[in-house]
Amino acid sequence: MKSVLVLNGPNLQRLGSREPDIYGSLNFQDLTNQLLALGKALSLDLNIMQSDSEAELMAAIHEATDAKVDIVLNPAAFTHYSYALADACKAHTASGANLIEVHISNPHAREQFRHKSVISASATGVIAGFGFDSYKLALRQLSV
Ligand code: DQA
Fold this sequence. Notes:
By secondary structure, the chain is an alpha/beta fold. 38% of the residues lie in helices and 19% in strands. It has a single domain (2-142), classed as Dehydroquinase, class II (Rossmann fold, 3-Layer(aba) Sandwich). A 5-stranded parallel sheet has the order 2-1-3-4-5, with helices on both faces. α4 links the parallel β3 and β4 (99-103). α3 packs parallel to α4 (83-94). The protein is globular. 1,3,4-trihydroxy-5-OXO-cyclohexanecarboxylic acid binds at residues 11, 74, 76-77, 79, 103-105, 107, 114.
């Protein structure tokens, strides 16, 4: 069974209560449950994590790189300014493993500061704007 790391950045544990008009009314546990159900259907072994800490996210990426595990990453606000995460993502994809950047909202349709992703150039691909389906589309892609 193929393993995939689903990594979530800062504030995403606040789903459900945080700006529900943008991120929806379902919470992080709902997201986890939906992804685990899809992972099972696609025969993917998912490790789903969330952290507000750049260092923890980087350690998880490094571990996945060493283990050659594909990643679905919602870098949240780090998308827009974390060159440290970008470097870890670059090393991951340069090693031959996949990393799909996902966003629940479409950052390009929001404030100016969200229009720039420092991560995208280091990602295999980017999926944004489809709610929780952004993650599901990424998992489907990694399952083929
Ligand atoms: C987000 C978009 C980011 O701009 C924001 O900082 C987030 C969530 C999204 O999933 O739409 O925290 O990554």
